[in-house]
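Aim 2, interim progress. The first record below pairs a target sequence with its structure tokens.
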Amino acid sequence: MYVMNQNQRRLVDPRCIPETLWDHRSGTLKLPQALAQVYIDLIDSKGIRSLALSRSPGEHPVGGISQEQTDKHFAQAFDGSAARMELAVLDPMDATSPSSNELIRSVLGHHVCIIEAPCGAGATAFSLLATIAELRAQRVLPRLPLDVVLIGADFSTYARDYAREVLGHMATTLEEQAVFVKGEFVPWDVTDKMSNTDLIQTITLRSARVNRRLLVVANFNGFLERNGNRKRSQAQLEELFRHVSGEGSFAIWIEPCMNRAIANGGLLRWICTLLGTSWKRFVRILGVNVSDDPIRTCFSHFKIPIDPDHTARVGLAIIGMQLSRSEK
């Protein structure tokens, strides 16, 4: 059944989150089984299980351009990134409900274009789709036909190859819940104007007939805070957000909930400044009063797919944005 909490205006009442996704007794996330199994299968087929099991709690691998960097990032960060998006969608502690509602509303049915940039191996987008599919399977959400154009953009060829493999393994499970995905994974260097133009042209061509567009930016802090990349990327990020804006468009920016992302001077504070200045004609912060902090945060734990007797902590910092245009 499709559940709404009338008091909190939640599209999915936290009390109705199925046990397949959330252990209500311990307050622990479980990745959607289909996605968790794909992750395990790819870990084993690539021979990187030992790498996945050797992660350090204080280590936060940043994806790189090489095969070695990509393997490490997939092995040690894919499940955490997926859990972060799952936390944003389900919002079991009622901390980020405006963004949760919009994420769910974006993929209830009809035609949607999801742009994940950067996409890495696609953990964020696939977590969204797998979570929605499981909510459908458990009859929490209606099983309406949903056609998804998924555009994943990343500078790493190896990461894009991983994303294609994940989609190949996930397609049948998603289709069982009437979620039909056509994926395209394209090269993207956010610091390069021509590369950004190529991505925008792809979005224009692929999303011409969709009802809604969802732009997902996740786990970008590690890259943007190195070597002056934030400054070199600002114009391209503005162009991307401006292009995607319009009726039926929504965006989220997700980062791990760490001081270097949410403190004064951090990446998300910088984004908030842009939203109030140069981006204000095409972005409106979602569900925020003047006195509210636009950055919503929460923490949880998730069961590690390759070691289900243990959990890892996941922190979420999120900004939800309605990409609606205004004259001023």
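The second target in this work package is listed in the same format:
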Amino acid sequence: MKIVIAGAGKVGFTIASCLCREGHDITLIDVRRSRLDSAANAMDVMGCCGSCAAPSVLKEAEAGAADVFIAATGNDEANLVACQFARQMGAGHTIARLHNPEYLESAETLKSIMDLNLVINPDHVTAVEISRVLQFPAAMQVDAFPDCGMEIVTFRVAESSCLNGVRLTELGKRFGQKVLLCAAERDGRFLIPDGNYVIQAGDNISVTAAPKALRKFFISTGAYQKPVRRVIILGGSRIAEYLTGLLESTGVAVTIIEENYDRCQQLAETLKTADIVCADGADTGILKESGLNEADGFVALTGYDEDNIILSLYAHREGVEKVVSKVNNDKFTELLHSMFPDTTLSPKNLVAEQIEGYVRSLDYASDKSTIEALYYLGDQNVTATEFLVGAGSACVGRSLAELQLKPGVLLAAVTRAGKSHLPDGKTVLQPGDKAVVVTAGVTVVRLDDILR
């Protein structure tokens, strides 16, 4: 497909990188020539220098011929104007990245009035992801498929874990719960494990099942931790504001540490019960005075990766059970994963993940299977994709034992008539089913792509 992306900053670059891997024809628009040059050096994209809100620039970028137009600059109004112009010029689908909370509140109205197909607020997307992880502290990552009723939980196997040394075929017998180990990372290598795989300490493994079964599994393995009840958030960003609202609704006590006085005043007026501390959170004395040693959750959301990493390590050392860090530099993310088994999140990656899932969903004929959701499991080569099974799929009407799947592919869950289950060799897909497919090193654009 032809895709035009306005904005070649962190978010736009990441989106372009993901979609370029899928073989799409990408054109980037940005006011900075240096950004376009960097993108052109890193991947096979075209560049157009200028403002995305200028019709002449959009015309030069052939936005009207785009199957998908994505406005991902840092200016909300420019993104809205660019999407409107692109649509009037003939663009097939338009996606706007919007930061302003007021736009989020009226997202459906905006989509209707401006004929937008998708509106994404990176701060809200990130806050939702963090709140999900805080409700399951044993996990590094929690991916939920709401329509499928299943979750995929990624966690690190500790040296003392009773999972250490267990062969995959023995998992259900040993711990009494039917869960599926759908992906594993060992020494930086990701794979879909088979029955002979032996779990080792230090592995990052992803297991899937219904939420209740997953919790029972974690209890039986001794890895279960209760959801956090008191959280300290470092940095009073919009992510912090959204996250606090989500946590307050579940009874979690929140303390926000923010250095800017005016921002503290805004947060105090907006949030109901949160304690707002106006101080420099990089001061470990301030962290302790704010109750770090009594907290069971710590979230670092400053604008500086280095501060987030260092203070997250400090909180971990002080015994905080669950630590979450916002880190935009992927190299830093890899470093943190190697040092301690907590969660790092990147807003740009979360946005790219959602947009990639949407773009993939456009790649289908209506009688085939369509993508409902897509997640990365720790690495962009490992994906969990939820499909709506169509009548025209070659997977329909044949048992899983009969289907010859490609290496690196696993059918992880199936939902039919609202009931979800883990598939086995006798499972037969039917039109209307929801199927979750996990792949490692394999690009799956259609459900039929899982077949040899």
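The chain has four domains: 2-120, 142-220, 229-320, 355-450. This observation will shape the mutagenesis plan for the next reporting period.
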